[in-house]
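Run log // design_07
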């Protein structure tokens, strides 16, 4: 049974860490942050879930989705590198699109897509690694 303080810290810090990860992901290439750091922050939030609620809870919640997320993230990262070739630019050259929503202009580019792919790969990989580390050892040890 987890300690009460772990449950309380988990309930307070997990939403904060997830919002911080979104900020790091969107800051990406314009400020410190990006997909790698955001992925590590999300994995830290899941580590808090593992410590507070147990690895079984996290395995049931996101376990089946970790490998597909890694594959999707890798696919997004590779496709973002190839988009430049389709727009008569160089491989891995940034291509930007602007979306006007009234006075608000949203700029989305291939560096942001690459960061999203890296985010998915890192968060899924590190979380699956943490889940394997939290798996109880088999009795009797290895022979």
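design_07 sequence
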């Amino acid at each position: 049974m987890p300690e009460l303080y772990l449950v309380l810290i988990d309930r307070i810090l997990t939403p904060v860490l997830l919002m911080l990860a979104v900020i790091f992901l969107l800051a990406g290439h314009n400020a410190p942050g990006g997909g790698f750091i955001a992925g590590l922050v999300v994995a830290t939030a899941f580590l808090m879930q593992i410590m507070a609620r147990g690895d079984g809870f996290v395995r049931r919640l996101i376990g089946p989705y970790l490998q597909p997320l890694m594959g999707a993230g890798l696919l997004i990262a590779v496709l973002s590198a190839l988009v430049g070739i389709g727009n008569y630019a160089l491989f891995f050259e940034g291509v930007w699109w602007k979306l006007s929503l009234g006075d608000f202009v949203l700029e989305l580019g291939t560096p942001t897509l690459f960061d999203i792919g890296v985010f998915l790969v890192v968060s899924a990989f590190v979380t699956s690694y943490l889940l394997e580390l939290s798996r109880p050892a088999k009795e009797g040890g290895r022979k």
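Helices lie at 4-27, 35-53, 55-62, 66-86, 110-133.
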